[in-house]
Amino acid sequence: MTRQAWWLIMDGVTKTDRGARRADGRQEQKVLMLSERSRGDANPILYIDENDVQAGHAAGIGQVNPEQLYYLMSRGISKDEAERLIIMGFLEPVVTRIPVEGIRQQLLTVIERKLQA
């Protein structure tokens, strides 16, 4: 996620060595840009030295979906709150994977504070 005039570069690397038969290596990179001046680059990199594997990558870069924003606002939600909900929904798959509840809550607190700034 990028704000203001930030530039985020994500280099995701998956390496599958020879002999790792039936390995499954996948990566997904998503960048949410919160400003017209921000930029995001997603660079999925796959090094595969084995034939009998499954591997794939996906990358998506974009801004808050105006149709989602419109839908929430048509339900009486303010623009700021609608954007906050969309951003939290974007981050939710990552945040929920943090196994330690205290750290997860700390991160959510920091995110909320940054979104209000």
What features would you highlight for this structure?
117 residues, alpha/beta, 2 domains, two-stranded parallel sheet, 3 helices, 4 strands, elongated
Strand content: 25-35%
Which strand order spans the largest sheet, edge to edge or round the barrel?
A: 1-3
The total number of structural domains is 2
- What is the CA-based Rg, rounded? 18 Å
H and E order: EEEEHHH
What is the overall pLDDT average?
90
* Biggest sheet architecture: 2 strands, parallel
Q: Quickly count the helices.
A: 3
Amino-to-carboxy terminus distance: 15 Å
Tell me what you see in this structure.
This protein is an alpha/beta fold and 117 residues long. It has 2 domains: 1-62, no CATH class; 64-117, no CATH class. It is built from 3 helices and 4 strands, in the order E-E-E-E-H-H-H. The strands form 2 sheets. The chain has a two-stranded parallel sheet. Strands 2-4 form a two-stranded parallel sheet. The model has no long low-confidence stretch (mean pLDDT 90).
Short characterization:
The protein has three helices and four strands.
